[in-house]
Amino acid sequence: MAVQKDHWYDRALILLSSLTVSVQQTDGVTTVKLEEGMVLVCVCPWEGKLTMVSWSKRIRFDKVPIAVYGVSISQSYQTRIQFLKSTPMDGSIAITNVTQEDTGVYHCSVQTFPRGSWVRDILVEEDDADEGQEETDIHTREPEPSPVDFSLSAYLIYIYVSGGVGGLLILLSALSFQYWSFGRDPPSDLKMYR
Hints:
Residues about 15-25 and about 130-160 have low confidence and may be disordered. The longest helix has about 35 residues, at about 150-185. The protein is an alpha+beta fold. It contains 2 helices and 11 strands, in the order E-H-E-E-E-E-E-E-E-E-E-H-E. The strands form 3 sheets. A 6-stranded mixed β-sheet has the order 2-10-9-4-5-6, with no helix packed on it. Strands 3-8-7 form a 3-stranded antiparallel β-sheet, with no helix packed on it. It has helices at about 10-20, 150-185; strands at about 1-5, 25-35, 40, 50-60, 60-70, 70-75, 80-85, 95, 105-115, 115-125, 190-194.
């Protein structure tokens, strides 16, 4: 005679393997000199499927959307921005007809599948500013603190991560309850099969 067993742990392993958590990775701050046709490089360093590229510019404490690849470009940049897309993971842009107002910190956010998001901040400075200084290495420069960003891409990542963590907590609660309830007394209606 064989006893039918509930293989809940098999289902738990399958569910756990399907849950993923997206972690935003950053590449620090790069400095670019303000010049005509300047290129703001934003190339994701890993392989995958690029699902979205968005650019914003920090003005005071706000991130003002500039462009989303294939979706929209802000009115003031409409004729001045071109997405380069030289490789499948390239979100770089070129800006033409530059003015002094184009200086500041630009934020590139690349959404990829399956690894999540990758971001880069680019500081655009006037050519004559700090002329005697060497360019700062992106790995040694401290990134500027940024305010909380509730843009669409950040909100979607928040939902994605929260959903994964929330699902994991629900699963662990259900498994704990099942273990606790079946661990105390075996079910009285356990059926025997041949």
